Amino acid sequence: MSIEENKKLVRRYFEGAPYNPDDCDEIFAPTFQFHAIVHTGVTPQTVECTPESEKVFYEQHKSIWGGWHVKIEEMIAEGDRVMVRWSSRGTHLGESHGLPPTGKQVTNTGINIFRIEDGKIAEVWDIFDRLWLWQQLGVLPDIKEALAKAREAIL
Predict the structure, then answer these.
(1) How confident is the model over 116-135, as pLDDT tens digits?
(2) What is the rounded CA–CA span in Å between residue 16 and residue 84?
(3) How many of the other CB atoms lie within 10 Å of CB of 51?
(4) Range of the domain at 82
């Protein structure tokens, strides 16, 4: 596939599949790897996925993050790789990682890197600002607030 075709495929990952789950059958390899850094200082967690598991993920994600929308901010491609810098927004309406719904609107940013093989997404590396997300949900203090408290404790 050409670089432009690879970019078009990845654009469908963001703009098509979350809203039209049947797109998953066309854009993902029968099995693909999803790599995510889940905990700081730990190597990425790799999960074997299928188009069906991705459909389930999208449905769960939409139920947790009502009104979820992702915007592609920048896309760079070379060879079989496509990198996307994205932003997202949504409202926390469902339980996530043990946190009950807060009703808070959140925004987030991240970078995904895709490897394309035989016209399908074969690997995804997912990196996003989990700290900022947890701060917006009120789980963690704002960094300025935390630093101020740390300074007070030292002085």
Answers:
(1) 999 999 999 999 888 888 88
(2) 15
(3) 21
(4) 3-154
